[in-house]
């Protein structure tokens, strides 16, 4: 779904209000009041049946923003108590996503449906072309017997009136690994055994019913406790806010962070190591290698695509190397990865060097709540400046290009870009693994999101504007070799 | 007839709340309206701080403040103003 929509706006508004409450002199009470401030007595009811349901859903959204799961949440517990407990939490929740049952519409199941546009024509290509005998004429119009229909969509393609449509459940349809299904009440449920945390369902649901459990309160609590909190900013952040990455660093320092590192610094190490590994693997006679920096892809390989694991590079992610550098530099610090997507939260949970993840929506909301005017800040330089290639990691093709640059002409690098994980690209990857080769190239760059990390589910900017901004910024950066 | 001016807020609040979509207006407006409309990005129109982030992003079209602005909404308002010969 397009980023420019009211569900995304609402989620960001709640983030801003929750952070403002944290920064106020009475976090707990002011959090409890957010649903009432947003939908005061007499306010119109924009989305749901009544103001009480609106407030209840807002309350659930705030529970997720405070980092708790909605599944199994207790209606009797006050929001103020949730706010209190969020500050006492030692570690973030294992699962990163949560479904708001109250917000989930319980969409009608995926099916093929004949609309009123059916003219009951003489040709009846729908009936003639249905291999399953699922279509018959009832009262002069086509009708589909759902017990026979296999959702092949042939009838949709042949109807001359475009009268037949596929009704989709957006979250189920967006999930590339069939991890979402409906429970007995028709509400969405995530199977966390299958889920690769790609975040596609979060962006796809038009009711905004799937939330990330935010870690923002944990991070703000650590800052308030006076801990050294260090931010590590992903390369894709360069196109997300109306400022340079130097002004971004200044803004984070203003919010109480102790230091800020560029993850592009780690990307330079990834590129160098991956180029070395590519050289070795090709010399050993392997026909192709895939990249390994995308957390969504790594989860896909580990959970559903084991056959390609031997072709995936063993090189670690830019975040891994940056977090290692951060730990060595500041052994007693709390490290926070500033991320374009929810998938990186699953990576962070497995890496002891990363304590928390803050996504771009939360980052933006933090600056709004602090009333920081980004463009007016004076930039602060980084101790280590990353290369152009490392800074381009977040754009589709950027990783492959950086490996090619680091290879420095030793091999003929032919890049094949998997720009977005979906059912088709998963099928293609399975094919490459089965054959042991890829006809389109010898270096397969896999990005879970279309456009690369700039297409991540938590990005503020559109892929087009973010890509342009990053290109403008990196053209003057130093080359990797 | 003086030129119609459009001011797009590029302040933190408007940018975060409104996605970066509105930046496209800086290209789209000259493409469609040529010299009839002047478009500029401004740091902050100061509505977000006095009103609320819930109505951001803001765009000024002539003297009119457009809240929860989108590309479509702004283009339609410009269209209307030019047709009515206002400003």
Describe this structure in words.
The complex is a heterodimer of chains A (481) and B (87). The longest helix of chain A is centred in the middle third of the chain and has 20 residues, at 264-283. Chain A has 20 helices and 15 strands. In chain A, α19 (423-435) links the parallel β14 and β15. In chain A, strands 10-9-12-13 form a 4-stranded parallel sheet, sandwiched between helices. In chain A, strands 11-15-14 form a 3-stranded parallel sheet. In chain A, strands 1-8 form a two-stranded antiparallel sheet. In chain A, 49% of the residues are buried. Chain A has 481 residues and is of the alpha/beta class. Chain B has 87 residues and is an alpha+beta fold. Chain B has one domain (4-83): Glutaredoxin (3-Layer(aba) Sandwich), CATH 3.40.30.10. Chain B has helices at 12-17, 25-33, 47-50, 71-83, and strands at residues 4-9, 37-42, 59-61, 64-66. In chain B, a hairpin with a 2-residue loop joins β3 (59-61) and β4 (64-66). The A-B interface holds A 3-4, 8-9, 12-13, 16, 38, 239-242, 361, 364-365, 367-368, 371-376, 460-462, 465-466 and B 10-13, 15-21, 23-24, 43-44, 48-49, 53-54, 68, 70.
The CATH topology label of chain B is Glutaredoxin
CATH architecture of chain B: 3-Layer(aba) Sandwich
Radius of gyration of chain B using CA atoms only: 12 Å
| The CATH top-level class label of chain B | Alpha Beta
From the helix content, strand content and strand pairing of chain B, which structural class follows? Answer: alpha+beta
Overall domain count of chain A? 3
- In total, how many beta strands of chain A? 15
* CATH hierarchy, class of the largest domain in chain A: Alpha Beta
- Contiguous low-pLDDT stretches of chain B (5 residues minimum) are none
In total, the number of strands of chain B is 4
Shape of chain A: globular
Strand order of the largest sheet of chain B: 2-1-3-4
């Amino acid at each position: 779904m397009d980023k420019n929509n009211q569900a995304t706006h609402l989620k960001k508004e709640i983030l801003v209000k929750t952070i403002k409450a944290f920064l106020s002199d009475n976090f707990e009470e002011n959090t409890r009041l957010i649903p009432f401030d947003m939908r005061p007595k007499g306010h119109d009811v924009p989305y749901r049946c009544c103001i009480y349901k609106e407030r209840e859903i807002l309350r659930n959204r705030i529970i997720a923003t405070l980092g708790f799961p909605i599944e199994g949440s207790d209606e009797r517990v006050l929001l103020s108590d949730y706010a209190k407990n969020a500050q006492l939490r030692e570690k973030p929740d294992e699962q990163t996503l949560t479904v708001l049952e109250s917000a989930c519409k319980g969409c009608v199941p995926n099916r093929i449906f004949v609309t009123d546009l059916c003219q009951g024509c003489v040709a009846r290509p729908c009936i003639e072309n249905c291999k399953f005998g699922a279509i018959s004429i009832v009262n002069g119009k086509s009708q589909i017997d759902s017990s026979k229909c296999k959702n092949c969509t042939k009838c949709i393609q042949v109807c001359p009136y475009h009268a037949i449509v596929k009704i989709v459940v957006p979250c189920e349809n967006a999930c590339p690994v069939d991890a979402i299904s409906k429970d007995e009440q028709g509400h969405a449920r995530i199977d966390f055994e299958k889920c690769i945390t790609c975040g596609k369902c979060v962006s796809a649901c038009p009711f905004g019913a799937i939330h990330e459990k935010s870690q923002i309160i944990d991070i703000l609590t650590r800052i308030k406790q006076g801990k050294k909190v260090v931010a590590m900013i992903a390369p894709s952040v360069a196109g997300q806010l109306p400022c340079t990455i130097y002004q971004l660093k200044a803004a984070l320092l203003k919010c109480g962070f102790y230091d800020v590192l560029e993850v592009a610094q780690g990307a330079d190490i990834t590129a160098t190591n991956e180029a070395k590994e590519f050289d070795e693997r090709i010399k050993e006679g392997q026909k192709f290698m895939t990249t390994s920096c995308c957390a969504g892809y790594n989860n896909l390989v580990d959970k559903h695509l084991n056959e390609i694991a031997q072709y995936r590079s063993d090189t670690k992610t830019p975040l891994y190397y940056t977090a290692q550098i951060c730990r060595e530099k500041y052994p007693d610090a709390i490290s926070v990865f500033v991320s374009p997507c929810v998938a990186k939260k699953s990576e962070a949970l497995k890496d002891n060097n990363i304590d928390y993840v803050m996504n771009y929506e939360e980052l933006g909301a933090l600056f709004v709540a602090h009333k920081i005017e980004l463009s007016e800040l004076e930039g602060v330089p980084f101790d280590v400046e990353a290369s152009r290639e490392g800074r381009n990691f977040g754009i589709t093709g950027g990783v492959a290009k950086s490996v090619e640059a680091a290879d420095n002409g030793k091999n003929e690098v032919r890049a094949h870009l998997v720009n977005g994980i979906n059912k088709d690209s998963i099928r293609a990857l399975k094919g490459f693994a089965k054959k042991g080769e890829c006809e389109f190239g010898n270096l397969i760059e896999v990005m879970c999101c279309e456009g690369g990390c700039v297409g991540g589910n938590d990005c503020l900017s559109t892929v087009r504007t973010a890509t342009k901004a990053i290109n403008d910024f990196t053209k003057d950066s130093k080359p990797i070799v | 007839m003086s030129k119609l001016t459009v001011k797009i807020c590029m302040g933190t609040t408007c940018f975060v709340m409104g996605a970066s979509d509105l930046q496209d207006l800086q290209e789209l407006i000259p493409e469609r309206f040529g010299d009839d409309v002047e478009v500029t990005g401004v740091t902050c129109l100061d509505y977000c701080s006095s009103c609320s982030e819930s109505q951001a992003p803001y765009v000024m079209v002539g003297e009119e403040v457009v809240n929860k602005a989108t590309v479509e909404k702004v283009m339609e308002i410009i269209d209307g103003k030019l047709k009515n010969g206002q400003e």
